[in-house]
Amino acid sequence: MIRFCLIASLLVPSVCMAEIKFGELPKPSAPKASEPEKPEAAPTPHAEVSRVLGLLPKPEVAFVDFGCGADARWCIAAAEKWGCKAIGIEIDPTRAALAKRRVKEAGLERAVTIVEGDAITTDVQADVGVAYLYPAVMDRLKPRIEKLRAFASYIHQPAGIAAVKNGDSWIYTGPIAVASQPRAAVWNGQLYSGPLCSNPACGMCNSIRSQLSQRTAAETVSPAKGHYETRKFCNGRSCWFANVWVPDN
User: Fold this and answer.
1) What separation, in Å, do the N-terminal and C-terminal C-alpha atoms of the chain show?
2) Start-end ranges of CATH 3.40.50.150 in the chain?
3) How far is CA 95 from CA 137, 187, 245, 247, in A?
4) Which of 73, 60, 115 is CA-nearest to residue 92?
5) For 61, which DSSP code?
6) pLDDT tens figures, 15-39
7) Quick check: pTM over 0.70?
8) Can you tell me the distance from the alpha carbon of 202 to that of 134, in angstroms, rounded to the nearest whole number?
9) Dihedral of CA 92/159/154/105: which sign?
10) Which of 103, 122, 141, 219 has its CA 20 to 30 A from that of 200?
11) Residue 76, burial from CB neighbour count under 10 angstroms (0-12, 13-18, 19+)
């Protein structure tokens, strides 16, 4: 009995020490949560795309989207609206591939071309364009924008360019030579190079004559020193936006 008590008295402290040591073991650290990826900027809303295309002139050469993203919605909308050639430039290979797939699904492979490359350096032939880019990138794109007949920037104002704020977008009209700019008037959202009849009571034709005469007068006063501005017009039937030649003071 004495031997048993001695053995027990020797074992119990060991067990307690073992429990203490076990309790002191460091707890495994919780796994670090991975940093969330930065969300991509949401693409331009379809409603804004449709609205802005209604403000831009129909491309005579081609339409270009500097940074078309994964769905190429600007290019597809432009090709569907005008039946024109459209070019989307996308620097990210994955997005460029998705954009090409989107164009194929829309059945517009003949009209829309997606080019994988940098919008700053990729050379394309176009006269009307759009972009949804950060101001720093837009600043580097300025020389290319200034060569266009018209340009629209969603959200961000192009620095150093005489763009006019219209809704959520900025509209720029390039310095087109007056001699090369076709004389046109606007009625009910349509362009006309001259009146359609000689009836003095025709409001439509009278408006066309008035617009053409005003433009001719402005260009005669200062043919080389001026610029085009996008302005809103209403005729009692509807409202629209059109480019107007404004002489520089």
Assistant:
1) 119
2) 46-174
3) 18, 40, 39, 43
4) 115
5) S
6) 444 444 444 555 555 444 443 343 4
7) no
8) 48
9) negative
10) 219
11) buried
